[in-house]
Amino acid sequence: MAKVTIKDIAKKAGVSKTSVSFAFNEPSQLPEATVQRILEAAEELGYVPDPIARILKTGKTGTIGILVPQPIHEITRNPFFSEFIEGVGEVCTMDGFSMMIVPPLKGSMERAIANATVDGFLTLGLELKKSAMVVLDNRDVPFVMVDSDPEDGVAAVNIDDEKGGFLAMDYILQAGHKKIAIIAMRSGKEGKYKDYLGTLRKRVKGYQTALEAFDLSMDHEKIRLIECASTLQGGRHAFDEIWKSDLRPTAVVAMSDIIALGIMRAARDQAVKIPDALSLIGFDDIPFASLISPPLTTISQPIRKKGKVAAELLVEHIKGNADISHKILPVKLVERGTVR
Amino acid sequence: MAKVTIKDIAKKAGVSKTSVSFAFNEPSQLPEATVQRILEAAEELGYVPDPIARILKTGKTGTIGILVPQPIHEITRNPFFSEFIEGVGEVCTMDGFSMMIVPPLKGSMERAIANATVDGFLTLGLELKKSAMVVLDNRDVPFVMVDSDPEDGVAAVNIDDEKGGFLAMDYILQAGHKKIAIIAMRSGKEGKYKDYLGTLRKRVKGYQTALEAFDLSMDHEKIRLIECASTLQGGRHAFDEIWKSDLRPTAVVAMSDIIALGIMRAARDQAVKIPDALSLIGFDDIPFASLISPPLTTISQPIRKKGKVAAELLVEHIKGNADISHKILPVKLVERGTVR
DNA sequence: TTGTAAGCGTTATCAA
DNA sequence: TTGATAACGCTTACAA
Description:
Two copies of one chain form a homodimer. By secondary structure, the first copy, chain A, is α/β, with parallel strands linked by helices. Chain A has three domains: 6-58, lambda repressor-like DNA-binding domains (434 Repressor (Amino-terminal Domain)), CATH 1.10.260.40; 63-158 and 303-329, Response regulator (Rossmann fold), CATH 3.40.50.2300; 161-301, Rossmann fold (3-Layer(aba) Sandwich), CATH 3.40.50.2300. In chain A, 43% of the residues lie in helices and 16% in strands. In chain A, helix 1 (6-13) crosses helix 2 (17-25), helix 7 (109-115) runs parallel beside helix 8 and helix 11 packs across helix 12. Chain B binds a DNA duplex through residues 3, 5-7, 15-19, 21-22, 25, 29-31, 34, 49-59.
């Protein structure tokens, strides 16, 4: 059976399309009886207004998009993402938005941006290429960048990554460690840290500062940087890699808790005691970091709040109140049981 | 500046709207030079085809919706959801779909369904009211129901909940426990288990069968059923509640791992040793269940696979290959360290 | 109070 | 090869 449209209802109820539209959107404008009749006709025929047609006319989709640099099934493997989404979700609930997760489409971020039916975007950890930025601009929907190097004239939400990096490395150094492995999430730069952008760049800068105070540096032979996927699996692989390398680090600085958790898992499997044989510090402070044992020492960032703040900012933009501010949320060191 | 449309490009490039459309969608139909000219004009003016207009015409949104019964910020608190999404995400990646999370809109599932711009829905743990089912039917988009009582004529994916319930309860009973608290996720039925639907109903049925073999039943005074949110917090509250009740259970059967984890957390805070002072079995087998210590004994279900299977089924429907099958995925008991 | 008609920005059919 | 033009289904001035 063909789709039931407003026209069918109009015919059936013996009124114009306008009246039908009113019956749904401004019932107060119509006599009670007419509204009844229309609604009944609609019910009988099984009519549901086509959301797309409505959007084309009104220009409001009622959904906000989260632009992510990786395939969905990959990004969801990090509880960080759930936490972030939770914060965004609070705002969605509040303001009646749905949420769309927008990964690259056939490998192209541009295409994904061009095709998403949203009122605005949150970009998460995206290093937007010029071309993507152009598409984003041309789409003419507002966007807020989270965990990226801020661009002029666009709203941004970040945490104090540099301080976070410093805090983590300094803590390890203060504990007396000299052979240190740094595990970063995959960047596409294969560990060439000097090319790092955004979050990674800032954290590494923090590491540097801390290292220099101990006469060390990122280039020192006892300091090793490797990358892995920011997942449990990724952490496990990372552990295997560092553990069989020539440098047997006494401490690991992980760029995310989920990586750290993966490392703990792998270490346990190989009977490497943490923190006795290996110290470990994470980054994020996801809920499970404190649940595991030993509980994970980490840098805490307000993930949920970050999502919430960013979403609030975006919703303001959608409502037409441009606020190009650049917010920076604090981080702090949480001492628990994985560093000796 | 006003939005740049296909018309502007046509004028600028001195061609018709049709040609512009072709230049983007079927460039092979146009002479190379014309395509170039059009693309340049588009680039210069910053043109991006309007996805909504495209969808209105083509009828394809390129996104699949996940209908969830709770606000986003609540549902994301259960790692079960991330796992599920991960499975769905695999299919999205494969077939180039985005994913939209669709919670009730202003309290109304009907409204949410009516407004979502998707090619199809996955419903997760939804007990769809008649009215919502009607809207879903009328929307005329395919849908697949996951974790619900299957309806005639609609595709469904479930796990063997009844067996899962049986396995869990039987294991606890075999271990010699007689005073047992069952913790269910909030159902809106406030523990009146006889009114349960879907997943909950089936699991309770499994409990019953196991209990009866030990001359017990859901109504026995030593068997207690309470509900809580399926979150870490929820589990913590649940522990507090059962621990200060007159019945001091020696074992807890939790309906989700995240609840179980919350219970473990609360128990630890109050120095209640698991499994020595209290045995505990979960349900789901989320990744963290095996990471925690003691590792959580639980009923394992293939969450990610469930998402994947459901999404595959949905995509088939979207492509026009109706397959109204009802799949049931297996569960199994995973003995770890929380039952004595 | 109700109806007419003009868009919204595409795609796609059909002529030229 | 290219260009009018008619949908797509709705909202909303404006007219009656």
